[in-house]
Structure formats: C-alpha cells, structure tokens
Predict the 3D structure of the following.
Amino acid sequence: MTNGESNYVAIIREICAEEGIALQSYSFDWIFRLTKNGKTGYILGYQFGLNAASVNSICCDKSAASELMTELGIPNIRHFLFASPSEQKFVGNCGFMEDLLLLLKKYGCLVVKPNDGTGGELVYKVRTPCELETAVFEIFRKAAYLAASPFEEIENEYRAVILDGEVRLLYTKKRPSLVGDGSKSVKELLLEKMSAGEYISPEEYPDGKTLDRIPGAGERVLLNWRHNLGQGAKAVPVRDEETRRAVGEIARGVYEALGVRFASVDVVETAEGLKVLEINSGVMMENFAGQDETSRRIAKEIYRDAIRKMMSI
Ligand SMILES: Nc1ncnc2c1ncn2[C@@H]1O[C@H](COP(=O)(O)OP(=O)(O)O)[C@@H](O)[C@H]1O
Ligand SMILES: [Mg+2]
C-alpha cells in the first residue's frame, strides 16, 4: 500500500478540507504542510509536531524510555541496550555477547528487537544461545542498536492514545487464535479458518508439533505471541471500568513524567501487574481505523483535535 492509499492520508485530507486548512503534500504523501490564518504546521509521517524533538527521540529509543521510566517510578518491561560492532566505539568497546548471554542465563527466555523498531518487525523470542546469535545477526543486519528484554507472559496488551494527558482511546489487542472442539487437530482448525476466508500470515502458522495436537473443547490456541495489529491482532475497545482506570493512570503517568503530548502508550498485563511495554510518539491508527466505520470515526476525531492543537485553532 502506498502512503496515498492509506486510511491515514485520506483522514488527514478530509480533516483539512473540513477545517478550511490549506494542505500541500510532499515526498509521496509522507510530509504535509498545513496553513491557515498565516500559521504553518508540518506533519511528517505520524509526527504532528506536538512533542518536543528530544521527547520524540526518547520514545523511539526503547532502552532510553525504559531507563527513564524505571528512574521515574513507572512500571515497565525493562529494555537493555546493546550496540552493534560498528557502534561499539560509542559505548566503550565493551563487546555485547557476554552480557547478552548473561541476560539469557538470568531470565531463561529473552525478547530481542531493534532498539528503534516498530510494527513487530525483527522481534524475536529466544531461549538458547544459538537462537540468540541468529536473532542478533538478523537485527544487526538492519539496525545499529538492539534492545533485549526478559520475556514476560502477557495476559493482555492495551493501547492508550493520549492527547495532552487525556486518554482518548483505549483498546486491547487480541491476538489471532483458534478454538478447539475436542476432536479436530490444530491443523484442521487452521484450515477451517482459512477456508472460511480469514487470512493468516505464514509467520503465524504454529510449529509442526502444535499442528498435530488436538485442543480440548473450548480451548483457545493463540497463533502469535506478538500483539501487533499489523501482525494479525485485532483492536477491541476496553469497557471494563477498573481496567480503564488502571491503564489510564499509567498512561497519564507517562504523560506527566516525559511530557509527551500526543502518543500511544502500550501497556501489558503480566503476572507482576501492569507495565509499559513501549511509547509510540507517532500515533499510527491505520489498522485500527481500517477495522470498521466507528473506529475510523474515532481515529479521525483524535487526529482532528491533534491538528487543531498544532494549528492553534
Ligand atoms: N519482553 C516481552 N515479553 C513478551 N512479549 C513481548 C516482549 N516484548 C515484546 N513482546 C511482544 O512483541 C510485540 C512487539 O514488540 P514491541 O516492543 O511492541 O515492538 P514494536 O515496536 O516493533 O511493535 C508486542 O506487542 C508483544 O506482544
Ligand atoms: Mg509495539
């Protein structure tokens, strides 16, 4: 999909037309210049210029954000930084393999990912030194820095979109799953789902052992351990008041601690309670807006308010 074909670009164009804002597009709809009443503002990708540049950079840097949140008392999934060979000179040429292996030994299972990654790409769950080396090799082919975290069983993952301290949207990301009937194997259930027209990406196919297993009646088999909407998860609004309060409190804590005005805060529910997994200072609601008309309307209103703030109208 090109930028121009996205829900996002269509929404930005609609808002500007409705608000009487002149809009010019550059770089294949990646950059927009907005003008109204002599005021000019820029949107670049999913950045609306509402956050300070340094705050944006902190949010995009998973290990820096984790370090700061820990310092400021915000529960988070720890992300430890490791530099690729070409960047070692900036961190004292201390090498990375020994510390990574120690981390793996300590936690038994790690998640490694590009330190500035998005969309669940190049995110690996590793249990053995060999899996770790393979993942590190893949990540350092594309990224200069890597973040490693202890793997934590995630019961639920939530996304809170915050604008000036207000939680404007809260949904939970439901991973694609199959439900057993006590007689069909995972392979048969998967084929059934796919024959019914549901697309399941090859990345989500369970391994050979799981494919032959026969889940019990009503048993849920998750098809992906990652919660990215771009990796098959679905956004479901959170209605439970207590969850809304608790996740909202953490998201507002992030706003107060880092001063990030417009962001989506990913909060996960683990055995140890709620923790921030990551902060996205670019608010990307493409997959959410594409789910149905109501979601599109909600996303559009949030983007409208962000644009109104950036244009002071
Ligand atoms: N430490 C972890 N433990 C368990 N699951 C994780 C961990 N880190 C990431 N994940 C899973 O992987 C997904 C992608 O990781 P994330 O850090 O959000 O990277 P990205 O910025 O690429 O989306 C998350 O939505 C979550 O489901
Ligand atoms: Mg993510």
About this structure: The first helix runs from residue 7 to 19. The longest strand covers residues 166-174. The mean pLDDT is 93. The pocket of magnesium ion (ligand 2) is lined by residues 228, 266, 278 (CB under 6 Å).
